[in-house]
Amino acid sequence: MSKPRLWLQLFEREAGRGLGRREQLCASLRQAMRAGELELGERLPASRVLAADLGLSRVTVEAAYGQLEAEGYVNRAVGRGSFVAIASGAGGQRKRPSPAAPRIAPLSRRGQLITATGGCEDPLQPRAFAAGSPDLRAFPLALWRQLLNRRLRSDAALLGYGDPQGHPALREAIAGYLCQSRGLRCRAEQVLVLTSSQQALQLCATLLLDAGDALWMEEPGYRGARTAFAAAGAAIVPVPLDAEGLCPPAGAAAPRLIYLTPSHQYPCGMALSLPRRLALLGLARQDSRCFIIEDDYDSEFHYEGRPMPALQGLDEAGRVLYVGTFSKVLFPSLRLAYLVLPEALVQPFTVARSVQDGHSAQLPQAVAADFISQGHFAAHLRLMRQLYRERRAVLQEALSSLGWLSAQPSAGGLQLAALLPQGQEAAYSRAAAARGIATPSLSALYAGTPAQDGWLLGYAALTPEEIRQAVAALAPIGTSPGRRPRLRT
Ligand SMILES: Cc1ncc(COP(=O)(O)O)c(C=O)c1O
After folding, report:
1. Which of 60, 73, 331, 455 has the fewest CB atoms within 10 Å of its CB?
2. Is residue 169 pLDDT above 90, yes or no?
């Protein structure tokens, strides 16, 4: 039997048991291993390949592999693949694993929760239409090198250990920028410099959530955040969206945490309205344990006038933790991001950060501080905004020629949500992949049953010509459904 058919047959054998798709896949692989249909040391297909064969999202397959690894059925080796870790026999007794499948130590419960999330993945190479990549070709490298050399010549202290809270000059520069451009009310003493938003979310989860605590998330929402909260054992409550953003049920009790992308909802693009902002702050004020995490991941790239000021600026009660990152506005490998914390949380978060990894690298922090304070940051943002606005227009125009893909309105960002005829996402994604085009899945961003099939198309890193070519490559794969899909809220 051909391999894709074998996988499909194994998968379908567990259908009709009322399992979710991830659990169905786990059950079918466990069963096949116990029955000896998959042998000890056998390599499982790459998650991308299996996802395509079974019509699942890659996230689902990754999560299933992660869960099976946590349970001891599978060994995974970075860069090598995933391997069957048990031999068939009574109860699936484990034999010595083959050299191809090194044993890993048994994991803690926490370790199992973390690996069961399937982990996070960012695009390694900017290419059509990987989401979330800024244009690295347009970065002023010569200027950065100059600033770096100047610091290297004059500041040997940067080679030593640094302040866990972050280089003072960078904290000053960040606070100044946020107060002026994003309407925050904060001092440099409230800024904690980190390596990434992901680390910020992970710290919030570690310090504020106990297993089983309720956390509200936008549905659909950012997978990196869901991963961090799921790894902490949170009871994640997906909250639906409408045109005004997060729309919690009337009279709902305040959860422990609310995670929001209020400037530009990820992935749908709407801004959270002022009445909703005030209502959520009011809700948080009623319960001293409730905090709001504001992930302002790409508000610098707003193309229709100015973005709404940050929610943090409206917070009178110290309930908002503000997350920002330099991954999009400078470059991802810089690994610099920040949290702006209510006064009472600064010390515990700084201690926790020192326990995790000490501090962020000093030299890049100092260079980033110089880049901001000398005015280069503002100039770079102006230039990038112009570039990305043009690219968004090119993509919108190119997509409008396809009858089957409906670009959703968006005030900014590096990517655009586009809807597909319902039920077509897996097949269309396979066809796009066969043409070398990445089409990040919209349905994979739902915690529950996806309400929309679609793609989140990254355009910022692509030249107009690259965008047109990639859309032309997509053109033959779809047929017009007659009526364009609309975002359901
Ligand atoms: C909603 C959201 N938050 C944060 C980030 C990125 O953060 P970092 O690279 O700093 O972890 C992204 C990147 O795509 C994002 O989409």
Report:
1. 331
2. yes
Task: Classify burial at 44, counting beta carbons within 10 Å of its beta carbon; exposed 0-12, middle 13-18, buried 19 or more.
Answer: buried
State residue 93's pLDDT score.
41
Mean pLDDT of 325-346: 98
| Claim to verify: residue 385 and residue 460 sit in the same structural domain | yes
CATH code of the domain in which 111 resides? 1.10.10.10
Q: At 7, is the secondary structure helix, strand, or coil?
A: helix
* Rama region for 180: left / alpha / beta (φ>0; ψ in -120 to 50; rest): alpha
**213-221 mean pLDDT:** 98
CA torsion 234→240→245→247, rounded to 10°?
-90
Q: Does the beta carbon of 295 sit less than 6 angstroms from any atom of ligand 1?
A: yes
Based on the fold, state whether residues 286 and 416 are members of the same structural domain: no
Residues 289 and 177 in one domain: yes
- Does residue 327 line the site of ligand 1, with CB under 6 A? yes
Q: Structure tokens of 337?
A: 């991001």
DSSP tally for the chain: helices H, then strands E: 15, 13
Centre of ligand 1 to C-alpha 412, Å, is 15
Q: Is the CB of residue 269 less than 8 Å from the CB of residue 410?
A: yes
Verify whether ligand 1 is closer than 6 Å to residue 337 (CB atom): yes
DSSP 246: E
Q: Among 347, 377, 407, give the residue marking a domain's end.
A: 377
CA of 466 to the centre of ligand 1 (A): 24
pLDDT above 90 as % of the chain: 73
pLDDT at residue number 66: 75
- 369 and 170 Cβ atoms separated by less than 8 Å: yes
H helix or E strand, kind and range, residue 382 = helix 376-400
Domain count, the chain: 3
- CA atoms in the 13 A half-sphere facing the CB of 184: 27
Which residues contact residue 237 at a Cβ distance below 8 angstroms, ignoring those fewer than 6 apart? Answer: 214, 215, 216, 217, 255
- Residue 79 vs residue 405, higher pLDDT: 405
Confirm if 297 and 328 have CB atoms less than 8 A apart.
Answer: yes
Q: Are residues 228 and 249 in the same domain?
A: yes
Residue 122 lies in a domain: no
Which range marks the domain in which residue 16 is found?
3-116
CATH of the domain at 277: 3.40.640.10
Q: Are residues 373 and 405 in the same domain?
A: no
